[in-house]
Amino acid sequence: MINPPIIVAEGWDLKLYGSTQDAELDLEPVDVEAGLYVAYDSRGLLLKLEARDSAVVLSAAEPSPTHQEQLEDLLRGALQRIGKDPMKANGLEGLVEAAQVFAFKPPRSSAEVFKGFFKK
User: How far apart are CA 48 and CA 37, in angstroms?
Assistant: First the structure.
């Protein structure tokens, strides 16, 4: 079972997604095919990214989480690069919480944009 948030790294860039669907919709299939991303769930479960029919599909790459240390290192590094003190975070759960600053914000739908525009 995959537990959000989904943490996706592309080199030094990091994004947190609230669901697998958000990640699948945002990630580019061409970049997945090029192997640019590494992805984990919030527990350190390594995720498999596949490009299928011009879409991205996420699934578990292992039966149980074995990449907690790699995820902790990734989150600590990302937090340090933006001037946050990762040592204040307590364990993996604390690091994931602190990394919410990297949370992906899905684009608003056209209907929401127009609805807001006409309210003015």
Answer: 10
pLDDT in tens, 60-74: 999 999 999 999 999
pLDDT in tens, 24-33: 999 999 999 9
Domain containing 45 equals 6-119
Count of the separate structural domains present in the chain: 1
Torsion on CA atoms 61, 62, 68, 70, rounded to nearest 10? -50
**Distance, CA of 45 to chain centre:** 12
Residues facing residue 48 across a β-bridge: 59
* Identity of the amino acid at 62: E
Q: Please report whether residue 1 resides in a domain.
A: no
